[in-house]
Amino acid sequence: MRRRTLLTAGGGIVGLGGLVGAHQRRRLSRWSDRDALHSALEVDVPVPAGAVVVTESHLLAASDDLEALVDEARSALSAHDEPPETTLPRAVDTLETVDLDAVESVSNRERERLLDRLRRGLVSAGRALGTAEAERGELDVDEIREGIDALESRIDETEIAYRADSVSESVVQYAVADEALDDARTRVDWASERLEDYPSSSVGYLARARGSLADAERFAAVPDGEGIGDRFEERHHTLAEATESILEGIEFKFDEDRLTYARQARSFSYPRPDGAAAAGRGDAALSVRAAAEEYARANTLEAFTDVPATGYGRPSSELVSAFDTTGSDVLAAKERAADAVEERLGAAGDEPLARHLLARIRERLETGDHRVDSTLGKINEAGGDEWVVALADATLLYRQAALEAERLPAVLELVAGRR
Questions:
Q1: Fewer CB near the last or first residue (10 Å), C or N of the chain?
Q2: 165 CB-contact burial (10 Å; exposed 0-12 / middle 13-18 / buried 19+)
Q3: Rounded to the nearest 5 degrees, what angle is found at the Cα of 167, between the Cα atoms of 162 and 169?
Q4: How many angstroms separate the Cα of 36 from the Cα of each of 39, 107, 363, 370, 385?
Q5: pTM for the model
Q6: How is residue 48 annotated by DSSP?
Q7: Is the pLDDT at 315 greater than 60, yes or no?
Q8: What are phi and psi of 48, to 5 degrees?
Q9: Residue 298 pLDDT more than 60?
Q10: Cβ contact 239:292 at 8 Å
């Protein structure tokens, strides 16, 4: 079966015969591509404002949690004539470098980053405490087990009360609360699994689990309004059905031997965590956010059903023959994506879900930039087939991201219940 070629721009790689060496020929013939690729890397993509609210009190409480555990670990280590080497310096470095004095002027995105650092510090401080006590024969495994059991019970009893005036306005905030609660479940499981063989690690994971549970409660305390848990479940069902309907009509096989780029794009973009799995755990908001991400990607795939995948195996002559891509195509695709993100931010930038989805798209564009940078680094060494496929791959990635941004209104309408 012959498919039409999506990427056409004309202009192949010009050979210079035996006048210069192979590397020199490649470098000279790729000058125009090189310039266009550098220009693509210089295209700025707007950064969406953080969609998650991290309150000042939340950050300060997290800092207090870490400081208290660091002090406890220091006290345990001071009882040693020759203190063992531990992970405590990592936690101390976090405390010393996380500046909360100007937290009022810090963006939500930066607050998220600071919170993550503080919570990771709990693992380091907890392990240090466990190591200090274990070296003195004072680490009580039974006491740790009791702590694990007690925390497991608290987690099982914790139910997030989804209360808000709007699904679209609250789904991202409640989704991160769901994620924090699930992280607490995961960490306490790790603490239990490692207790017999690595009890000091269990102390660290248990500390992180307590922190994640506190995060879930604090994230969930931000929105307010009527109960909307049922509406989250309804929206997840609607989004999942819409996605399944799209996927049923997508061709994932290019021919007998190759997959389409639609298949590659779906694999690359598949959301974590899975919406259905989140729904099964009762994480209703997280299930909606994940389902919205999956629908947003699925809604672009029909544009790539007649293009072969670029990311599976070594480039073949059949694959290379499907593309006639230049650096100019890469640049144009990156510019289109940046324009699309900017336009959608201008139209819906006040909506948290829009900011979240656009931030995910921007992450994908950063992945594209890394690939372009890697391609530039191999400008002399890459063979002709490898070069052609690398340009096509970057172009397709940028185009898929652009299309996802352009079609964002359809996602927001489904989540808002307007479709």
A1: N
A2: exposed
A3: 100
A4: 5, 34, 21, 15, 19
A5: 0.86
A6: P
A7: no
A8: -65, 145
A9: yes
A10: yes
